[in-house]
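Backbone-to-sequence.
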């Protein structure tokens, strides 16, 4: 007698749906772990970038007896970026950059093309958690230049200052004189950092404009205007308080900003829970979002006389 085979040749629809559901659950469980691993790698890369900047600043100081200027408006408009080229293994850009010209003149910036010295996407400019390769192409139309995630410390001040003379106890490592004269930037020797190199912030992170064509000064480190070259320690890292600058209005809660005078920029990153900060001794620490405003402000000043504190 013929008997049908008991072997099954395929899954039933219900079994197939169960398998798909199990795979979806596994993907849902694995994806956050993969994202955490990726972010951990990005944060480590960002830390290494800051260490390279720290080494460059120390080499600059060894060669010149002081740190570079932060920004200057006269007789030529410049910022700290090109002065660091020889010390971050960018000899080619150092040779291309013309220090006898303003930052916006050729060959520093070549109008409407991407060939200028300040338009080259140096990997050390970018935190991989934000927008590597970011440019500013429309803040000043035609003057193409990089955006940079790493900003120098301006201290507990706004730009321009709200009080003249600016008290020296508010000075960060970089900035202007007590009259807030943009033609008279300070160049700080390590000996002037009386709060201690290990207790003073030299550099941290910011988030750059979301689009190359956005009219947004965030990350515009080669431009001496406004708060472009630095960050301030008036607000804690990743603060919900809006930055004040020339900026786009984004819905991104990590980038609150309003347009206005007396500009200030907080340290910001896309790392979970805080920002990396380079101290003047060359070490890199992670400053949590929960850091007290008093400790953060004390880290921002170089001679405020505040007691040192771990964070």
């Amino acid at each position: 007698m013929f008997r049908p085979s008991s072997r099954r040749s395929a899954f039933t629809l219900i079994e197939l749906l169960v398998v798909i559901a199990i795979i979806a659950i596994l993907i849902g469980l694995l994806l956050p772990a993969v994202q955490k691993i990726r972010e951990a790698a990005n944060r480590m890369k960002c830390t290494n970038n800051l260490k390279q900047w720290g080494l460059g600043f120390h080499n600059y100081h060894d060669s010149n007896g002081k740190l570079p200027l932060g920004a200057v408006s006269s007789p030529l408009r410049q910022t700290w970026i090109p002065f660091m080229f020889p010390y971050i293994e960018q000899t080619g850009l150092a040779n291309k950059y013309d220090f006898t010209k303003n930052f916006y003149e050729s060959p520093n910036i070549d109008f409407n093309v991407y060939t200028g010295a300040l338009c080259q996407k140096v990997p050390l400019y970018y935190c991989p958690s934000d927008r590597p390769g970011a440019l500013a192409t429309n803040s000043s139309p035609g003057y193409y230049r990089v955006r940079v995630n790493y900003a120098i410390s301006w201290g507990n001040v706004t730009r321009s200052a709200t009080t003249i003379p600016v008290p020296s106890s508010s000075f960060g490592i970089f900035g202007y004189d007590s009259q807030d004269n943009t033609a008279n930037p300070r160049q700080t020797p390590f000996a002037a950092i009386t709060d201690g190199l290990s207790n003073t912030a030299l550099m941290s992170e910011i988030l750059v404009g979301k689009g190359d064509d956005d009219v947004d000064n965030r990350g515009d480190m080669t431009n001496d205007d406004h708060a472009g070259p630095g960050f301030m320690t008036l607000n804690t890292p990743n603060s919900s308080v809006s930055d004040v600058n020339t900026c786009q209005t984004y819905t991104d809660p990590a980038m609150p900003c309003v347009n206005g005078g007396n500009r200030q920029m907080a340290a910001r990153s896309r790392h979970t829970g805080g920002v990396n900060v380079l101290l003047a001794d060359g070490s890199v620490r992670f400053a949590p979002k929960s850091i007290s405003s008093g400790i953060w402000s004390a880290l921002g000043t170089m001679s405020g006389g505040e007691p040192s504190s771990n964070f």
